[in-house]
Amino acid sequence: MSDEAARRRYWTEQMDEAYDFMQVIMNYPVEECGEAVQSMQAAVADKNVNVAFSNTKIASHERVYFLREGLIDPFLAIALAMNERGWQLKVEDGFRSRAMQRDISLQPVVIDAVLKKTMWELNGAVPDPDFLLKRLSALTATAPKVGTHMSASAIDISIISFNDGTEIDRGGPYLEMSELTPMQSPFIAEQALHNRQEIRALMESYGFMAYPYEFWHFNAGDAYDEYLHQSDKPGRYGAVDIDTASGQIVPIENPQESLHDLENIQQQIDAALLRLKE
Description:
Layout: H1 3-26, E1 37-39, H2 40-47, E2 51-53, E3 57-58, E4 61-62, E5 66-68, H3 69-84, E6 87-93, H4 98-106, H5 108-121, H6 129-140, E7 154-161, H7 190-205, E8 209-210, E9 217-219, H8 223-229, E10 240-242, E11 249-251, H9 262-277
Parallel strand pairs: 2-6
Antiparallel strand pairs: 1-5, 3-4, 6-7, 7-9, 8-9, 10-11
Helix pairs in contact: 1-6, 5-9, 6-9
């Protein structure tokens, strides 16, 4: 088997596994505990821990760096442990509203990358909207029930070296959308895999479980966490709307409802094809 064929096969297997994972999570029990959220940025400032936060937007949305209150202390402990190793934790993303979660899938940088990779997977064929939505579901979460950022229980991270200010090599940057994306990808350099494993071990030692299909995503206390631990316990954090002023949460009704419709996905495919021709 050629290297490209092996990469294509791995991508397909991993994306199918990720989609199946999402279907399990869609039906995994959650007993929302009602815990409020708290600002990660305010917590960092209060404890004087060296953490960076991305200043980019999700489409036109400002990022919202909130976590459930019960996760703030473990988050700070992680940041401090990284500081002691000569690393700076960079938080790329925190809580996402429904609009943010919907729109992140439709950003040109995301939809173009996923469409291009899916066409590569299909040997040049343009996917139908069902198939592209399936791939987007694996990579960006397309319903509140499976989008743990919407539970305020997940963070996306990068790691910066204090020595020279460069990013610790993990085999690709945040939002890499390829066969390099799964945590255990065999197509990254040995040192990059070692770095992923070291970061993962540190995160998990403080209770933040790694999502197996994205090397930057970690979460705690939700359905992902309990399912990956095979705890047989319900998640305590579910998809919520939040009041950023008070930190109070309101559980989302019908969290299994898709944030996308197939007509819109087809429109996004058509627009992305035009961009890819330019």
